[in-house]
Amino acid sequence: MESLSALALAVASAALGMWAMVVRRNLVWKLLGLNVASGGGILFLVALSHRTGARPPIVGLGPGPAADALPQALVLTAIVIHFATLALALALVIVLTEHRHTQDSRKLEER
Amino acid sequence: MSAALVGVLAYFALGMLGLVLARGRETAVVALVSGTISLALWAPAFPEGFVGDWPWGIAVAGDGWSLGIWGLALFLHATVLLHAWSRDSLGHSLITLLVGTCLAGSISRDLFNLYVVLEFSSLLSVILVAKEGRSAALWAALRYLILAGVGMTLYLFGLGLIYGRTGALAVSALARGGVFDTAVRVGAGLLLAGAAVKTGVFLLGLWLPQAHGQAPTEVSVLLSGLVVKLGVLTLARLAEAFPVGPALLSLGVISGVGGMLYALRETDLKILLGHSTVSQLGFMLLGLGLGAEFGALIYAVAHGLGKGLLFLSAGEAVERRGTRTISELAKGVPWPAVLGLALGAWALVGLPPLAGFTAKACLGANQPLWAKAFLLLLGVGTAAYLARLLPLFRGGTGDGRLGGVLLLSSGILALGVWGFVGNRDLYAWPVWIEAPLTAGAGFLVDLFLRTKSWPLPKLSLEYALLATLLVAVALSASFLVL
What we know:
The structure holds two protein chains of two kinds.
Chain A: H1 2-23, H2 27-48, H3 69-100, H4 105-109
Helix pairs in contact in A: 1-2, 2-3
Chain B: H1 2-21, H2 24-42, E1 46-51, E2 58-62, H3 64-83, H4 89-107, H5 111-130, H6 135-166, H7 171-177, H8 182-199, H9 208-214, H10 217-241, H11 245-265, H12 269-289, H13 293-321, H14 326-329, H15 335-349, H16 355-364, H17 369-387, H18 403-422, H19 429-449, H20 461-481
Antiparallel strand pairs in B: 1-2
Helix pairs in contact in B: 1-2, 1-4, 2-3, 2-4, 3-4, 3-10, 3-13, 3-18, 4-5, 4-10, 5-6, 5-10, 6-8, 6-9, 6-20, 7-10, 8-10, 8-20, 9-10, 9-12, 10-12, 10-13, 11-12, 11-17, 12-13, 12-17, 13-15, 13-16, 13-18, 15-18, 16-18, 17-19
């Protein structure tokens, strides 16, 4: 049951993030939206590895069923990639603001 | 298998070494040599194996696609090194890493590994596009990064659905499993949408024309020639794992027509070539959707060489003349650039004996009549928007660098001639009549359209995001219903 609500939360945060990306004109808001959406993707993968009554997948933690370790390994990689993307995007926003003196996507679009 | 892996690792290690030592050119040459040796050792194929222990190892294999992409990557890297030797060392290191990423992606047969490769390639591409710090290029790079981020989030969700339902991420295991129920259908739709965003398919990946057009010359060559083909390769792997042929077919139609409409109206030379890449993706996706995988592969390699040559010459002309619009450039283009543009257009239109002719004959062979008719329509469109380059051929002025143009032209000629040796379809007489007729029809269409104008919506970031999300939802929904 917890797993189901986590999955719903993941989809909801992805939808919320994408919504913010489409309707907000400020670039920093757009990037926040992207980060919330990709956070939803990460939560989705983590929630999938959940098994009822399972312990964390750590060797030597004791008997009984363990959660699926593979999605958690994938998530580690995905988090690093999202961090790199956000850092690069913010750096681009800083340089762009210095050039054009605006963070409004509609003003940046016209030249 | 180990030969290919060593080649990929050498590329990554030498790219990093070039960054650390600030000696990008020298390490790029060493990487190119080691990559070529590695290709010679594993070619033409190697069987599927695992990096790491079962069940968590990453599946790798060398097949036709790997061979094609490796050949294209090494050839384009050599061209870029030759043409842009005097450029900064940082750029050469990043280009080495980018080429290494494409080499890695082409042997990978694991969906998550492909996700990592795609993300890494977009990060490197964005840095390379924005490298020179022009504000138009910065904005194009940021648009690319944001749209690729959305696409890759969709891909991650699709990946989760597929893994949660089937417990597998390797392409061969998914193809063997053959499960295609609700969860897998939605997942496949999201994976397809995510990979299409990264490829630059029309409506899904509207970042492509701006990013490819605003990038520095040597980066445009690599982005349009090679990095786009990484996306096509991912779509080919997805087509292998899931029955998604009809969806690829419709994406191909949309991309072919959409890119063509914008290319016919564009006045900026490099952005026109970017729209043309979107349109040419239509050919490859149609090939994949129709099951003509070999034709799609040959087309991808031929387009990589042809569009690489066009971008190389266009970039040279734009840099020498300091202007980007076709009408301004028509006042005088360096003659090596004229030669390159003419040969590239010749190849892309598909006139014999260059690479485009071979590719179009391979793609069109044994297809149903409606598919042949549509390919012909796209061919006429290609000729029509390339006919807009004709004013540039009025006569060259000044001097320019010839090296890269000659190397790429010889590659295009070699691929064209190879087709005559290996392929019986090329000797059928209808193909020979079709090619010049297509080019002539395209020229007439261009003459006719010069006086007409039609409104096209501006591809702003908000529209692009909305289109991406809507098409992704539509793709998943269509898999559920059909």
